[in-house]
Fold N5-carboxyaminoimidazole ribonucleotide synthase.
Amino acid sequence: MSTPPRAPGGFPVVGVIGGGQLARMCAGPAAELSITLAVLAEAPDAAAALVTPFAPVGDHTDVATVRDFARHCDVVTFDHEHVPSDVLEALVADGVAVHPTPQALRHAQDKLVMRRALTGAGVPCPRWAAARSEADVVAFGDETGWPLVVKTPRGGYDGKGVLVADTVDDVRDWLAAAAERDEELLLEEAVPFVRELAVLLARSPSGQAAAWPVVETVQTDGICTEVIAPAPDLAPEAAEAATLVGLDIAAALGVTGVMAVELFELADGSVVVNELAMRPHNSGHWSMDGAVTGQFEQHLRAVLDLPLGSPRAREPWTVMGNVLGGEPTDLYPTYRHLMARDPELKVHLYGKGVRPGRKIGHVNVSGTDLTDLRERARHAADYIQGVIVE
Ligand SMILES: Nc1ncnc2c1ncn2[C@@H]1O[C@H](COP(=O)(O)OP(=O)(O)O)[C@@H](O)[C@H]1O
Ligand SMILES: [Mg+2]
């Protein structure tokens, strides 16, 4: 592996393991701050590798590869949660600054570890249990009511790894697959939430923390499709309570960098925690254009233990619309129409190949009329996806 180019003047190298869109979106803020971004990429054409001069291709599960990559970095952070703990521990043993630390990251890598820790810390969660057998599933379903929600503790994303089970029959294949991996499944009550919220915050190794306004996230078929910042009609006390849940979790688990806490809002206005992510998160993409400090800049500041930037929203509302892969594969031609139609729209595409349902970009639009902003974000996402043609 060669050496990443460093800017003169004492600027650091931040290494990101994984070359997806989250690593890619750190590139703009890194360039502005004269920080060198290094990426351990899955392939030469990974989303982040396309925009980062130093992006060696390597396997993030291979200790030697990751150690070699980390040698060049002042701090190592992540695009995803999939780096095995023995690899992370090897970096720590080498004296590499890893943020979030392996100890904290475990709670984002494994939903059972997360549930145990949050329940232990008194954080409100859905009723849950670990299951190895059909008897475990039946016992939990009979106690909490059917259907129940079944999750693979590790490796799930965008609703993959989440199953709504009406009877134990629906869980049989998953139990067998889990048994083969010598893993348990996570069972949760099906929460009758009124909507989904997210708290996004950053915390630095020194313990400084900054939280963005609480947002509403809209999921379609398990994939986030829209985020509204701030969450409409959320009482200030409820927003404060949700933010405190996030800050308490971050402090209790020793989180460093950006963390997202996905929440379910219940009919009485209270919240329970769905899951945690310890990296920039889809629910925070709005902040790139809608907040004084975007989540990718803030993540760099946090992992470098620099003072954090203001998370204040610049406008009353920002709406983020996710762009999912559709029929069209030529996306650049959409720019002419979209940019002419809506000069205030911000388009972010990730340089990824189009596959149906795959997250390939997002749009942000900010202003004062929420209904209008939602319509414009929806229009732009639909247009890029080829759902509409004008
Ligand atoms: N216990 C639950 N009750 C009701 N809906 C749930 C529950 N758990 C998850 N969901 C729904 O499934 C979506 C994906 O679940 P999540 O655990 O966040 O998985 P992922 O890791 O794929 O994001 C959630 O955003 C929510 O819409
Ligand atoms: Mg989720």
